[in-house]
Amino acid sequence: MPVVAPDKSRVRHAAERICDGFVAEGAARFETDILLSAEVLLDLYGEDIRARAYVTSDPDKGEMMLRPDFTVPVVQYHMQGDGAPARYTYFGEVFRKQEDHPERRSEFLQVGYEQFGDTDPAEADAEVFGRFSDVLAPLGLRAATGDIGILIAMVDGLSTTEDRRAALMRHIWRPARFTALVKRFAGLAPVPASRTALLAAEDPMQDTGVMIGLRSEREIAARIDALRADAAEAPMSEDEVALISAVLGVSETCPNALEHLRDIAVDMPGLLPALDRFEARCDAMARRGVDVENLPFEASYGRTSMEYYNGFVFGFYSEARPDLPPVATGGRYDALTRRLGQGREIPAVGGVIRPDLVLDLGGLP
Fold first, then answer.
1. Is the confidence at residue 231, as pLDDT, over 80?
2. For a pLDDT cut of 70, what percent of the chain falls above it?
3. What is the mean pLDDT of residues 102-120?
4. pTM here?
5. Between vectors from CA 300 to CA 178 and to CA 155, what angle results, nearest 5°?
């Protein structure tokens, strides 16, 4: 089914109205280039970003990307300043390849709202979620919430090697790879024959022929040593594998999810600080008028989003149009400010709205 090109003037007008609403609530307007340096994005996301972004080359600036989103440049801008509390809003085109969903638009407008430096993260999460919920209320969308911070705490608390925890942490945002690693570390999946032969060889580097790829011989040798060290480790326990599965399987209303996760935390106490933050956020949302008792929570939600989220994540979806991507998404990304602030970290939370999808669903009054 061909992608229907939206009326860009109508979409831009809708974007301006939403952006003006955020300005009226105290946000400063933010503008950035459409062509961004690929170096920073590749450093943050690895080569995976190439599958989603349009990449080109400039004779002076090197490898560049058509803007895949606004969050990275707005964080860069803010962290160049004094880090004082601030709110920003913006709108403009972003570009994403849609190889898995050719029916979706690869060029579209985003409207965003970002909050930096709040002293109470729970209140800030509730404020941002509430703002988006208020803007989108006329569309009758279904909200989804999750918390990547709980998953990070789950991995960090595992009684396994540091290397295994690091590998699992890298792949939290890749569910299939994460599951495969858990099975491998637990001895539940066979080791590929090629790896078995490699580890069994007395000198794996001997007679390798022409070097292919970007890794040096030293890097390859170090990787082989790491694989051998991992193969000598005892497998993860069945109990921990079951606890991982239990956490990832939580999908209930917020109060029930919190109760369920606290039951799991009896055997996985490393979850408790993240669950305390979850509870504080629920309380803050309730004070803001959000119907927390019926608000869905999925522990695995947000695992296929941009990898900078490290806490609360949310999205809004049309149940009448399940063919559409999320109308809005957002979350907390404190860790990104540390990466782009040269070690200086500040609280940060925000989100984006797709005005073209708002119009697809009838528009806002």
1. no
2. 85
3. 92
4. 0.87
5. 50
The domain of 246 spans 142-187+235-317
Average pLDDT over residues 51-61: 86
Q: Which helix (H) or strand (E) holds 194?
A: helix 193-200
Residue 294 is assigned to a structural domain of this protein: yes
* 11: in domain: yes
Could you tell me the CA-to-CA distances from 289 to 119, 129, 133 in Å, in that order?
21, 11, 11
Q: Which residues pair with 55 in a beta bridge?
A: 65
Specify if 253 maps to a domain: yes
The sign one gets for the Cα dihedral 2, 17, 316, 261 is: positive
Count of CB atoms situated within 10 Å of the CB of 333: 27
**Run of H or E including 243:** helix 238-248
User: How many residues are listed for the chain in this entry?
Assistant: 365
272 and 181 within one domain: yes
Alpha carbons 260 and 247: distance in angstroms, whole number: 9
Q: How far apart are CA 97 and CA 52, in angstroms?
A: 5
Compute the distance between CA of residue 247 and CA of residue 255 in angstroms, rounded to an integer: 15
Task: Give a yes or no: residue 338 inside a domain.
Answer: no
Q: Per the structure, how many domains does the chain have? A: 4
Among 3-7, 243-247, 252-256, which is the least confidently predicted range? 3-7
Look at residue 215 in the predicted model and tell me its pLDDT. 58
Contact of 146 with 311, CB cutoff 8 Å: no
Q: Are residues 169 and 249 in the same domain?
A: yes
Pair 88, 183 in one domain: no
